[in-house]
C-alpha cells in the first residue's frame, strides 16, 4: 500500500487551526539555504532543484535502481525555516530582503547517502544546475514543538503566531530559538490566497 503522509502522519502535517503541542521525530531532508525575498526568481529555482531531487528518489525503481527498504510513497511537501538578519530584527516592519531561510523537502527513512548520490547523479544528467552544489542532505530532530494550521495569506501569519506565543506562555513553555518553521500544504501558484494551508511551528522546551 502506498504511504501517504497526509493519512499516516496527520499529527505532523494536518494540525487544527489552534496551537497544540507535538514531539517531532528525527527526519531526513534535502535542503538549501539563502537570504532575500522569497518572491525572487532564485527562490523559485531553489524550490525546483529540491523537487527535482525528491522526485529523482521517488522514481528510482523506474530508472533501474531500487534502494533497500524502498516503498511507494507520496513526495513530502516543501518546508522552510525562517529567520531575520540582525538588521531585519531591528526594523519595525518586515523587510523581506532581510529574510534568512533554509527550504527543504523531507525524505523517507530508507534514503541513505548512496541513494542521495544516485539522485544527484540522475538530476545532473538531465540538467546540471549550479544550485545543485548548494543542496545538502541532513538529518534534523525538532523534538518538542508547538504547531498549528494557518489558513490564508502568508502575510497574515503574524495573527497565528500571536496565538502560538500565547499558548507557549500559558503552558509554561519557552521557544528554543527565534526561528520558526513553515510547511506548505498548498501550491501558491494554483491556490486562492485566502485558502492557502500552512503548518506553522516553533521549537519549545519547558521552563
TrEMBL record:
Any single Pfam family the record assigns to this protein: GyrI-like
UniProt cross-references to InterPro entries, sorted A to Z: GyrI-like (IPR029442), GyrI-like_CCH_Lin2189-like (IPR008319), Reg_factor_effector_dom_sf (IPR011256)
Segments forming domain GyrI-like small molecule binding: 18-198
Source taxon at top rank: Bacteria
Stretch forming the signal peptide: none
The name this protein goes by in its record: GyrI-like small molecule binding domain-containing protein
Organism encoding this protein: Clostridium saccharobutylicum DSM 13864
Amino acid at each position: 500500500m502506498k504511504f501517504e503522509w497526509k493519512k499516516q502522519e496527520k499529527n505532523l502535517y494536518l494540525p487544527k487551526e489552534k496551537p497544540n503541542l507535538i514531539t517531532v521525530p528525527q527526519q531526513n531532508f534535502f535542503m538549501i539555504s539563502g537570504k532575500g525575498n522569497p518572491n525572487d526568481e532564485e527562490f523559485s529555482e531553489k524550490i525546483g532543484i529540491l523537487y527535482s531531487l525528491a522526485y529523482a528518489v521517488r522514481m528510482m525503481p523506474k530508472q533501474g535502481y531500487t534502494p533497500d527498504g524502498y516503498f511507494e510513497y507520496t513526495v513530502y511537501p516543501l518546508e522552510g525555516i525562517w529567520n531575520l538578519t540582525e538588521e531585519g530584527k531591528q526594523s519595525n516592519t518586515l523587510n523581506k530582503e532581510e529574510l534568512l531561510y533554509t527550504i527543504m523537502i523531507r525524505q523517507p527513512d530508507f534514503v541513505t547517502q548512496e541513494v542521495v548520490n544516485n539522485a544527484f547523479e540522475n538530476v545532473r544528467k538531465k540538467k546540471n544546475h549550479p544550485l545543485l552544489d548548494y543542496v545538502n542532505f541532513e538529518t534534523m530532530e525538532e523534538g518538542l514543538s508547538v504547531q498549528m494550521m494557518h489558513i490564508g495569506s502568508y502575510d497574515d501569519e503574524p495573527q497565528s503566531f500571536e496565538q502560538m506565543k500565547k499558548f507557549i506562555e500559558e503552558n509554561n513553555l519557552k521557544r528554543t530559538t527565534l526561528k520558526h518553521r513553515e510547511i506548505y500544504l498548498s501550491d501558491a501558484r494554483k491556490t486562492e490566497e485566502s485558502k492557502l494551508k500552512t503548518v506553522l511551528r516553533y521549537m519549545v522546551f519547558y521552563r
